[in-house]
Specification:
- There is one protein chain.
- By secondary structure, the protein is an alpha/beta fold.
- Helices cover about 45% and strands about 10% of the residues.
- The protein has 16 helices and ten strands.
- It has an eight-stranded parallel β-barrel, surrounded by seven helices.
């Protein structure tokens, strides 16, 4: 068999032209599924057993950090976070645990108590709204913001907990507000700053401007302070913005499984990981990514849309004649690499899936013949043409069971 040309000869990659920069060498990924994700109005808070499995799968996927929950929400949240922390310790996990908290000592105290009880260092993600519209609604001024954040950060540091200062709605906040807040947070002991697109407002230009401004501010302090990026998907830009954020200098990227979360959701961490893997920026073993998403889907009672990237049932299906013919020709060459890419920007095999050729009203004869071959059905004269004729009379793709009934009813 003729040797297949190198990948670079078969796929011209415009993505590399004029690319801004490589990612930070220590870029990390932070999962918010069990906190921000379950705040979605149609999401069911998973039972503890499911949360433990989600934690285990994230460890297997090499996700760097996880938000275990918001203990300040009440006794159930405290119990679940404690159990997750104990499970983390018992299994000697490496994923870094954290908990969300308002910039209020009463929210941070239960985190400290869980940390002391389990012996696990838990990062405090202390959040505070900083945009002018939020300040107006809450009747807050800068002095109050400085006191709330400063007191909370100091308390957490005294409890020997690492702190990230999270500014809600950062992307709509004024620089003259952010500057003193960030400098105060760093002075009080915050190790990281989290920039949030809380309402899904920002575009890639805004991502660039905010991160570059923040990086310059940090450099002026002489401190080593990390930058988190936390995005929502109200404009449908969350995943793209997250990729831009990493390229513009954020070194920890937030998201949730399947993009679940408030309103239309967060950045989809599964899609972010897939893109970074295909970009060659990470080498995480993502073979259990589908299992992770399916576990979250079932536990949260959130069905995966049919057309959802990679995870959806339609992601690697085709019944269109031209598309199917190309895939079939590649498979007949015995070249699974080629078949996985000829009509797919994502190679199914790398994520535990496979290309599927089906039969419908847009199919050609080759679809039917290949379907019969894959199903192990003996070809008979006129059978494929009969099935295709029946498919053309419909307005949709035929289910496998329907094709089998046509086979059974075919004379001869």
């Amino acid at each position: 068999m003729k040797k297949r040309p190198a990948e670079a000869e078969l796929i011209y990659n415009w993505n590399l032209k004029g690319r801004r920069a490589a990612l930070a060498p220590t870029v990390q990924f932070y999962d918010e599924t069990l906190r921000d994700g379950i705040q979605g109005p149609s999401i069911t808070d998973p039972p503890l057993e499911a949360k433990l499995k989600i934690l285990e799968l994230e460890e297997a996927l090499g996700i760097d950090a996880i938000d275990l929950g918001l203990p300040g929400a009440g006794p159930r949240a405290v119990a679940d976070v404690t159990a997750l922390a104990e499970h983390h310790v018992a299994h000697k996990m490496t994923i870094k645990p954290s908990c969300a908290a308002r910039t209020h000592i009463n929210d941070i105290r239960p985190i400290a108590e869980i940390s002391q009880k389990t012996g696990l260092e838990i990062e405090v993600m202390a959040f505070l709204g900083t945009s002018p519209i939020r300040q107006y609604a809450e009747n807050w001024d800068l002095d109050r913001l400085l006191k709330l954040s400063g007191d909370a950060i100091e308390f957490a540091v005294r409890e020997n907990l690492p702190v990230t200062f999270v500014t809600e709605d950062t992307v709509r906040s004024r620089p003259e507000t952010l500057q003193p807040l960030f400098l105060n947070a760093i002075e009080k002991g915050a190790a990281r700053l989290c920039l949030c697109d809380t309402v899904g407002h920002v575009t890639p230009d805004g991502v660039r401007n905010l991160i570059w401004w923040t990086r310059n501010l940090i450099e002026g302090t002489g401190e080593e302070i990390g930058i988190d990026w936390h995005g929502h998907n109200d404009r449908g830009l969350a995943v793209a913005n997250s990729i831009f954020a990493a390229e513009f200098g954020a070194d920890r990227i937030h998201g949730t499984a399947l993009g679940i979360g408030e309103r239309v959701g967060n950045a989809a961490l599964d899609q972010i990981l897939i893109n970074f893997k295909l970009m060659g920026e990470i080498d995480n073993d993502l073979t259990r990514l589908v299992e992770w998403c399916q576990t979250v889907s079932e536990a949260c009672r959130w069905p995966i849309p049919l057309n959802y990237p990679v995870m959806g049932d339609d992601a690697f299906r085709t019944a269109t004649g031209v598309h199917a013919a190309a895939v079939i020709k590649a498979q007949r060459k015995g070249d699974h690499w080629l078949a996985d890419r000829i009509y797919s920007g994502v190679p199914a095999g790398e994520f535990g899936k496979q290309q599927r050729i089906e039969v419908g009203h847009m199919s050609g004869l080759s679809n039917v013949e290949f379907w019969l071959e894959i199903q192990g059905v003996e070809s008979r004269e006129g059978l494929a043409a009969h099935i295709l004729g029946e498919a053309k009379a419909r307005n949709r793709v035929l289910a496998d069971a329907e094709v089998h009934r046509l086979i059974e009813a075919f004379p001869g």
